[in-house]
Amino acid sequence: MAVRDEARRAALPDSAGRFGRYGGRYVPETLIPALDQITAAYVHARKDRAFQARLRDLLRTYVGRPTPLTHAARLSERFHRRIWLKREDLNHTGAHKINNAIGQALLALKLRKKRIIAETGAGQHGVATATACALLGLSCRVYMGTEDMRRQQPNVYRMRLLGAEVVGVDAGTRTLKDAVNEALRDWVTNVESTHYILGSALGPHPYPMMVRDFQSVIGREARRQILESEGRLPDVLLACVGGGSNAIGLFHPFLKDRSVRLVGAEAGGRGAELGEHAARFAGGRYGVFQGMASYVLQDADGQVVGTHSVSAGLDYASIGPEHAWLRDGKRAEYISCSDAKALAGFHLLAETEGIIPALESAHAVGVLEEVAKGTRRGAIIIVNISGRGDKDVAEVARTEGVAL
Ligand SMILES: *Cc1c(COP(=O)(O)O)cnc(C)c1O
Known about the structure:
Blueprint: H1 2-11, E1 18-19, E2 22-26, H2 32-47, H3 49-63, E3 69-71, H4 73-79, E4 82-87, H5 97-110, E5 115-120, H6 124-136, E6 139-145, H7 146-151, H8 153-161, E7 165-169, H9 176-190, E8 194-196, H10 207-215, H11 217-230, E9 236-240, H12 245-251, E10 261-269, H13 280-283, E11 285-289, E12 291-296, H14 321-328, E13 332-338, H15 339-353, H16 359-366, H17 368-373, E14 380-385, H18 393-399
Parallel strand pairs: 4-14, 5-6, 5-8, 6-7, 9-10, 9-14, 10-13
Antiparallel strand pairs: 1-2, 2-12, 3-4, 11-12
Pyridoxal-5'-phosphate binds near residues 200, 243, 246, 361 and 386.
């Protein structure tokens, strides 16, 4: 029975895009044909040997995959565990986002759609999408809140260097959720010519499934690499969770391995009060937001609330539906990591292993000690380093009052 449960869990979503009561499609009627078309093309691409060969080739020769699994010798010594780092920071453009952007750009070619739109918060998904579009000769428009544009100037310029048009969104809080709304509006109008490359395992079906699959290259490699290095499966996988794509990409190929604990780190921000963090499982409840049903941070009237995190990539009021499902089923656990702990993790990894992580990834490092304490001595822990920290160096200096 248990085995069959595990197999069923790994085979989700169902044909309606549901993970239990999460997921689905909550979008205007006009988008349903496009979502059906993407689903059909994607299901075909999944089995299409030419598509898969082209994707594999680009991941190898352009992105730089496979990324290494690095033994963190000094961290291991410190915590008396065997700690390994999955090095998504070494991908071209500096994070895991490119795995999905290239996969979806290839799908757009298959759909004969030459115009790409995307949303971005910190700018990293925008940069990854602009990169994939330059590589494959697609036109690219990226929606970004004007507040985020102000905070992420270098990424705005990077996208423009890559030939993308960056469109500022002046509505609402002028951040990610407003950029998503604007991208959806564009898509409704231009759906015949346009593919929307969504940046995380979020939104209406088939995005949560499709983004998960494109990111599962992380977990497939990690599984093979740890078996080669240690001769057995890990005890724990640990990853930060914004929308949830790097975490689900690492977790998914291990879902059937019941002995492997799956731990996600959410942004605990400045405190437990609503508005001060982005820990959906700590302060959120069931709701519908931007195309899907999941946990949503909302007030008593169901209004989505503002969020805060030191890391822009984790600063979102909802979370991918598969995580909600795994959490309710107790297959995965989620803990919050405060801004302060994430900053400590940022310094710890830099000083102990010579790797400056993205502030997002630093949330996983920040809870490593706590997670290690819940395991036996010598346990094997894989931490996903979803991106590199160059983009965050100035912000950390500012936060800590260091003049550059
Ligand atoms: C965008 C981003 C994240 C958060 O997104 P997920 O979809 O949860 O992975 C985490 N780390 C880095 C480096 C990012 O760029």
